[in-house]
Fold this protein.
Amino acid sequence: MNVSSLIRKDGDKAIYVMFTDGDKEAEFIVPECRLLNNRGFTDEEIGNLIEYIKNEQDYIYNIAKKVNPIKGFMGRQQGV
């Protein structure tokens, strides 16, 4: 799971979350838990990922608060 920093989208805070598994990728936006892109995940897997995001929003927000885009650009580990 990759988590973006907190961003402003239409005046509200938003986070982009991407899940990868081999060649499969799915990207969501939080807090809506809306699927933006899917490549390879089944409908059942997407449903499970949406449930995970809904149940773990506090955890996801805590990670996003620690993400520094400049450090990420420089390849430094962060977030957790």
The mean pLDDT is 88. The longest strand covers residues 12-21.
